[in-house]
Amino acid sequence: MSSTSMPETGTPSETTLRTRGRGFPVKALVIVVYLVFLLLPIYWLLTMALKTNQEILSTFNLFPDNPTLANFTVILTDPAWYMGYVNSTIYVVLNTLISVTVALPAAYAFSRYRFMGDKHLFFWLLTNRMAPPAVFALPFFQLYSSIGLFDTSLAVALAHCLFNVPLAVWILEGFMGGVPREIDETAYIDGYSFPRFFTRIFMPLIAPGIGVAAFFCFMFSWVELLLARTLTSVDAKPISATMTRTVSASGLDWGVLAAAGILTIIPGALVIYFVRNYIAKGFALGRV
Amino acid sequence: MLILENVGKRVGGEDHLSGVSLSLERGTLNNLLGPTLSGKTSLMRIMAGLDAPTSGRVLIDHRDVTGIGVRDRDVAMVYQQFINYPTLTVYENIASPLRVARLPREEIDRRVREAAELLRLAPMLERTPLHLSGGQQQRCALARALVKQADLVLLDEPLANLDYKLREELRVELPRIFAASGAILVYATTEPEEALLLGGNTATLHEGRITQCGPTLEVYRRPVDLRTARAFSDPPLNSLPVTKRGTGVQAPDGTSVAVGASLAGLPDGAYTLAFRPHLLGLDPSKAGPRVLSAQGRVSVAEITGSESFIHLEVLGQKWVSLTHGVTRAAPGADMTVHVDTDRCFVFDADDQLVVVPDHAEAA
User: Nearest CA of chain A to the CA of B59: how many Å?
Assistant: First the structure.
C-alpha cells in the first residue's frame, strides 16, 4: 500500500529532495496511514462499545454522540458474562503452567542430548501444530465425557497442551541452544546436582525464552475457540463461547458484544507488553 | 597422582584418542602441546570425568575412577571460551563451588576475597560477568577454579581468546597462582612458546597419540621424532629430506649438499635434516666448512620490528629464516642461506631422532 510513497529507499530523487527541503514528513505520513488502517477495526470496536444499540444501528458517526459505559457495566455485573472471563483465565493459566513445565525438560533433552530418532521426534512435535483442532475435537469430547472431565477447566487446559507443548518445546529449545554447553559442564564440575543446576543456573539464563514460550501458550490458548467450546457446556464456559451465544429474542446485543471484545483484547495486549523485546525471537521459535 | 593407562576414545568410528598413557604428579605443571584437533580437549575431558574413555583406565591416587562422573571427582576446569554464570555476580560466580559444598559463610567469604585479590577482581565483585572485559571474565573463571582447591586443575587453552597484552600478563601469573595449591595442573596449548614459558613437563600430542612426554626443555631439545619436533616449533621447523650414499649426501633435486660430520657415522639411506628457523642465517660470514650454503628465492618477508621472518624456497623446500631486527628482502629476490649442519636434528626414514645437535643451545 505504501509502494508509491516510499521514494526515500532509492536514490534521492527530486521529489524527496523537495519534500525534505520543505520539511514535508513523507515517512511520518506512511506510518500514520498504515496505523490508521491497522487500528480502524479496533477503533470501531471501541466506539461501538461506547454507544447504545440504538445509536449503532441508526446512525453512522466516528464519535459516539453520548458515550456510555453501560455495556461494560452489563458485562462486569452479570455473572453469565464475567464468569466467561474467569473460566477462560483459569484454563489459559493452567495450560500455560502445564505446557511450560512439561516443555522445559523436554527442550533441555532435545538441546543437549543426542538419542535415537531425536530429530524425527522433534519435527513430529511441530507437525502437531499443523493439524486442525477440529480433528481432535471429537476424540477429546468422547474421552473427556467418559472419564468425567467434560465441562471442566482442566479439560480445556489439557486439550490445548496438544498445540502448546510442541510450540513451547520448539521455542525453549531455540533459546537453550544459545546457552553454551560448557556452562552446564562448569556447573557439574562445581558440583551442582542436575535439579539445582537447572533451577538456579539454567532457568535464569533462559528466562526471556520462558517468558516468550509462556506468552505464546497464553495467546494461543486465549484465542482458541473450537476446542474450548466443544469441551465445555455451563460450568467452564469460556468467554469466546459466551460471546457467540448472545443472540437473544431482541436480536444481537451489539454494544455489549463490542465491550466484551475490547475486554478480550486487553489481557493479550498486557502480556505482549512484558515480552515485547523478545517477541521477534519467539516468532522465529527462538532461532535468531 | 593422576595416571592414564592406555586410554582411548572413539567417537562415531573415529579415533579421537588412542593408547594414551600418562602419569602426572601432584604439584606439577603439565603442558599438553599439540595443534588443533590433536586431542587435547578430548584428553582433558576424560581427565575431568566429563567423558568416559572407550578403552583404558584412569587412576587418581591409585583409585580407579574411570567410570566416575565429574560431580564425584575433585576437579576444576577453565575453558578457552570465557565461561561464567551470566546471571550471578562475580562474587557468586567465584563462591559457587563453595556454596554447593555447603561451606560456612565466613569461610566462603574469606576464600572468595582471597582469590579475588589474587586475580585482581576485588573491585568488581558486585558486577555480573557480562559487564567485565574479556580478561576479567577469564580471571573470574580462573578464580572459580582456584577457590575450589581441587586436586586436579585443567586449563584448556585459557589464554587463547585473550588479546596479546593480557595473555602475556596472565601467563606470568598463572603458574604462580596455582603453584601454592599443590594441585596437578594441566595446561593445554597450541603454542610451543607458551609451553616453554610455563616450563614444567610437556606431553606433545599428534592425532590423538602422545608422541613424547617429559620435562619441557628436554622435549624441546631432544624431540624423539619429527612430529614432536614439528609440534614443538613455531615458526615451523625447516626440514630437508636427504639421501646418503657413502660419503655423498644429496638433496631431493639431486644437488649435493655438504652436511659435514653429522651423517658420518650413519648407514646409507634416507634421512631428514631439521633445524629451527633462527639457525637459518642470511649473513655470508656464517659460511664455513660445516655449513650448508644454498641459493634460495624469497617468497614472503614478515617484519615485526624486533624480528624478521623471511620465507624462502630453498632446494625445493619451504624454509623460514628468523633474524633479529629488520631484514629487508624483496619477494622474488635470490639470497644465499647458511645453516650449520652440526646444529641440525637428523631423523631417520621412520622419522625417529638419530642425531642430536652437539650444542645445547642448538635446539
Answer: 18
**pLDDT for A80:** 85
| Residue pLDDT, tens place only, A265-284 | 998 888 888 888 877 777 77
- Please give the angle made by the CA atoms of A12, A17 and A21, to the nearest 5 degrees: 150
What letter would DSSP give residue B102?
A: T
B237, B229 contact by CB (below 8 A): yes
ipTM above 0.85, yes or no: no
Q: Which of B150, B154, B143, B152 is nearest to B113 (CA)?
A: B143
* Helix/strand/coil for A214: helix
CA neighbor of B123 nearest in space, from A252, B319, B133: B133
Low-confidence ranges of chain A (pLDDT < 50): 1-19
User: Would the CA dihedral through A20, A23, A27, A29 be positive or negative?
Assistant: negative
Helix H or strand E segment including B269: strand B269-275
Residues from B in contact with A at Cβ < 8 Å: 48, 50, 69-71, 75-77, 79, 81, 83, 85-88, 96-97, 100-101, 141, 144, 148
Alpha carbon distance B265, B348 (integer Å): 13
Say yes or no: domain A78-284 is CATH 1.10.3720.10: yes
Domain range annotation of chain A = 26-58, 78-284
Nearest by CB to A189, from B76, B86, B101: name it: B76
